[in-house]
Specification:
Blueprint lengths: L7 E4 H20 L3 H24 L3 E3 L7 H8 L2 H5 L5 H9 L2 H13 L7 H12 L5 H7 L2
Antiparallel strand pairs: 1-2
Helix pairs in contact: 1-2, 2-3, 2-6, 2-7
Length: 148
């Protein structure tokens, strides 16, 4: 099936409203000891924000359906921020990105969050993932939001 770049999905306005909602929900769920869901929603917030950046970079009011992927590395490329991320070298933001975008994170967390009961997840893991996303100094989403 060929990729369609002229078919559009979520609107930019919806994406801009959704990523902070998902992050807030992740933090609320963390406070309720719903660790698996907190991890999943934190990762979704990061993914959605990258889709916002893609729309802004391409000056589009909606995300092309061809870009409706969950692969963070690919979304970073499409957002135009991969080179900047790579130039961070050993900076903690880059280290956090490498963990969050790794294939093991995708398979262990995103996929497992769908199928494993909450008892499978522990609070330390959930706090660690959300910190990698939103830490005020070294969080990946924090860094992304600061990029011009």
């Amino acid at each position: 099936m060929p990729l369609r770049f002229t078919t559009f999905g979520a609107t930019l306005a919806d994406l801009q409203a959704a990523y902070p909602d998902r992050l807030a929900e992740a933090n609320e769920l963390l406070g309720q000891s719903r660790h698996g869901s907190a991890i999943a929603l934190g990762l979704y917030a990061l993914e959605i924000y990258l889709k916002v950046r893609i729309c802004l970079r391409l000056d589009l009011d909606a995300l092309p359906t061809a870009f409706q992927t969950h692969e963070l590395d690919g979304l970073l490329v499409l957002s135009g921020l991969k080179r900047r991320m790579d130039h961070l070298g050993i900076h903690p933001v880059k280290a956090n990105w490498d963990v969050l975008s790794s294939p093991s994170m995708r398979s262990q967390h995103v996929n497992d969050c769908r199928y494993k009961a909450n008892v499978y997840w522990n609070p330390t893991r959930a706090v660690d993932v959300l910190s990698k996303i939103q830490d005020p100094n070294d969080g990946v989403l924090t860094w992304l939001l600061a990029q011009p």
